[in-house]
Amino acid sequence: MTEQSHSIELTDPRALRAYAHPTRMTLVGLLRKSGPFTATKAAELTGESVASCSYHLRILAKYGLVEQAPGGKGREKPWRATARFTEWPDRSEDAAVAQAADALSAAVTEHYFQRVLKALENRHALPEEWREAEQFGDTLLHLTPEELTGLGQRIDELLRPYEEREAEPALRPEGARPVGILRIAFVDRESDSDAGEA
Question: Are 35 and 80 in contact (CB under 8 A)?
């Protein structure tokens, strides 16, 4: 068993396709936040059957995303995530890798927005200070590739001081809650007057 690393990079098309399954993404996310836990606990958290969770955990283990954790009794073995983050190529000369990576990116985007929709559905139950603090909106900027890269780096720098709190609960100030921050920046072809030139 290894300690959880910062990130795992998937480059095998089979691994990319395996991780693109919504239940598997959910299981890895739950293990990162609340693990280790058994397939039985996974079933309680996801609403899937124990057999289904066990199967998906074994597939994830095959590609190094999860592993069995110490402890447990009999067949009730706990699982844990092997890394805090999953990375995959933005582009590849290998067509199979490129297709699988694009499919995973699409699946992750859909997963993100399902989480956002669920948050919006339950927003009424939040205290007023949290409803006012939450952010929903968009901005259209005209940037060069270098400027967009630099903007991403600056956002990383802004978030970095808060990242330690994930692994170290003692660093969380009173009243802190888990907050999902999505970063999606894309060329907006609908607003792009130069789209015909690309």
Answer: yes
Beta strand segments in 2-152, E? 5-9, 66-68, 79-81, 83-87
**How many C-beta atoms surround the C-beta of residue 95 within 10 A?**
9
Domain boundaries, the chain: 1-131, 137-198
> 197: which DSSP letter?
G
| Euclidean distance between CA atoms 166 and 147, whole angstroms | 29
Backbone phi and psi for residue 10, each to the nearest 5 degrees, phi listed first = -100, 125
Token duo for residue 184: 């999606």
> Is the four-CA dihedral 12, 152, 172, 176 of positive or negative sign?
negative
For the stretch 165-182, pLDDT in tens is: 987 889 999 999 999 998
Architecture of the CATH domain 1-131: Orthogonal Bundle (1.10)
Query: Are the C-beta atoms of 64 and 79 separated by less than 8 Å?
Result: no
pTM, to two decimals:
0.78
pLDDT tens digits, one per residue of 29-82: 999 988 899 999 999 999 999 999 999 999 999 999 999 998 877 678 999 999
